[in-house]
Amino acid sequence: MNNNRSRDLGFRISDLGFGGGRRLWREAWGEEPRWGDLGFRISDLGFGWGRSTGRRGWGLGTKASFCLGAAALLGASGGALLVSGQAAVTWTQHTHATSPHAVHHDMTYDSQRGRLVLATRAGFEPGGSVDIWSGAPDGSWSQLPSPIPPPAGHDVEVAYDSHRDVVVLYTDSGPEVWELKDSTWAKIAAATTPIQCSDGALLQYDPLRRKTVLVGADGWPGPENPNETWAWDGTDWSLLADENATPRGAAGGGMVFDSGRGQMVCLTMIHNDTWTFDGTTWTLLPEAGGTDLRRWVFDLAYEPKSQLVVLFGGEIIQRDGPPLWPGDTWGFDGSRWSVLKPSVSPPPTIDYALSYFPEIDRLVMHGGWADPDWAWRNSVYYFEANGGPPPEIRITGFQRVGMDLQITSTGRVQAGKPQHLQVTPSLPGDGLWRTVQTIPEPGAVNNWEAPMDAPAGYFRVLEGP
Description:
Layout lengths: L11 E6 L53 E5 L3 E6 L3 E7 L11 E5 L4 E7 L8 E6 L5 E4 L11 E6 L4 E6 L4 E6 L2 E5 L13 E5 L4 E7 L9 E6 L4 E5 L12 E5 L4 E5 L6 E4 L4 E3 L10 E2 L3 E4 L4 E5 L2 E2 L12 E4 L4 E4 L12 E5 L4 E5 L13 E7 L5 E10 L2 E7 L8 E6 L9 E6 L5 E7 L6 E6 L2
Antiparallel strand pairs: 1-3, 2-3, 2-35, 3-30, 4-29, 5-6, 6-7, 7-8, 9-10, 10-11, 11-12, 13-14, 14-15, 15-16, 17-18, 18-19, 19-20, 21-24, 22-23, 23-25, 25-26, 27-28, 28-29, 30-31, 31-34, 32-33, 32-35
């Protein structure tokens, strides 16, 4: 039995991409994990760097079957895998007759009244009525008063300002700003005019800085279009970052405030670059991976138990071929995106609304539409994470220096346990793993050196006795 395990849970292969550019290493097993005392089976890994398994020290095969506990695996040619624990996640459909049909809408959480507030424009006609709905913890929905006269423009975005206890509504015509207090709307005349984003604007409240943050492009969004970042304080708009300091292609992507890390997280449209914003400066996270699938028309929400920013579905714009509508779920842990594996998922959906609802301790995904019928939906799905993110070991960097391979790993699962850098000439490697270095007291970041003068094709960092 493998005793190098930290707890009785399954492990998942996720993404680390090195050398070949910034790309996400997606799940590549050809069958479902087989849980048991020794971990799982992985088949058909399909790396792309090495051309044969016979190249001394740098070959990488295309099939593997091996068992690991708390460990990270590295193929010497540059392919890297993360093996880590993962909190269980589930999607559950909740049906209620009062749920409104809505698409291309927005939703926010009103903490003072313990309700969701949903805003949707009736039809796609500019200047059409804006319908406002309240979502209750029992799953029921009731209609709230609408702004009168209806706000002009196409796009409608909402965010709840918990400091001033108002729902802020932005629409592109003007642009206009409205605020909802209890059941009363008021149109606010601002002295400063922010960016006029015709579609895909991003609006989120920053509770640390007590500002509602708007990110948008001038006119219609596009993956290369310049964007600006603005803040609303209840009286006027102020420019936080101009088009040279705001991520291109942000509008049309997704943004959410990560309350666990105190920052905005933005995933841009199509290019799927990940940025964070501290209220002053946008920072690109080049190693986050993005979803690397050229997607847009998705939403983001922060799930506090797992400390993950969650994304579902959206539309993938292929370089060659028709659009795709995946039904996958992704999580961002503050450093990297990875695919989540719920046993049941909603159908492929775009243009939905997603928000955390503390009263039921779940994310709520509402409405949207997708192929083949493109009917407006009133469906509601709850997303739940059972437990927080478990500790994990990552291989976060490597380089070849002369005849040595320098490897960097981060993390540990069990306090007081040593970590070992091991090598094997081939996989599965059962009984063939050889320890080349041991760190008795591993820290948060660990540096390893492995000689490349042996027929070593694979390395792993293993934690155990």
